Amino acid sequence: NLSKRLQVVASYVKQDAILADIGSDHAYLPTYLVQKGVIQKAVAGEVVKGPYESAVKNVQRENVSDAVTVRLANGLFAIQDGDGVDTVSIAGMGGPLIAKILEEGKSLLTSVKRIITQPNIHAKAIREWSVDNGWSIIDEKILKEDGKIYEVVVLEKGNASYSETDLLLGPILSKEKDEVFNEKWQHEIKQWKHIVQSLGDAKNNPIVEEKRDQLNNQIQLVEEVLQK
Ligand code: SAM
User: Fold this and answer.
1) 0.90 cut: is pTM over it?
2) Could you report the predicted ipTM of this complex, rounded to two decimals?
3) Where does ligand 1 bind, in terms of residues with CB under 6 Å?
């Protein structure tokens, strides 16, 4: 059974999309989407041999080899001319790594209409990449599974600009402010306050003072959003 996390990612794949799932590991996501009849064709990309082999095995076992092509490749270079990929998913990695994969392979995104990302941490890196590269955030979700909190950020082509707070918290998530969102950021604030406290004694060190000011500023911005 597909995890709740990947089900949320799957919910953003349109009927009959042609998907490239990058960092697919077992290829659970494309396999599930084919079996549900959502898509007929997908590429599953993996850069590491072990996960690549488990993807190949799983696709064979589930009898979806005709629909899901597994490729050993770095990031978006799993996409080939003629695949007709219109949707990309990149899930289960840190935001900075997802942003790096998008940046390095952006020449392969010309026919792509939608990018579905699921950063485990630092979603901000993806939001920043989107602004810099002519993509805008069309939806976001936050969810908790097995005690861990995950974000999903969905991009389509378009120009947008976001405030610093929106880049950090998410322009849509910070408006919805659901329970998991509040939990995540209350936890972050707590950690930042700990850091501020531990920096408290270092007087007359401009670097430390700057760091402390930055954190205090961030704490204030996020608290404002939570209290609004
Ligand atoms: N996407 C699946 C999910 O969300 O459950 C698997 C997530 S798994 C934690 C991350 C996978 O990304 C690993 O299998 C890793 O080998 C792969 N990966 C990391 N960097 C990659 C890259 N540059 N290109 C392709 N795959 C990559």
Assistant:
1) yes
2) 0.99
3) 6, 22-25, 45-48, 51, 74-75, 91-93, 101
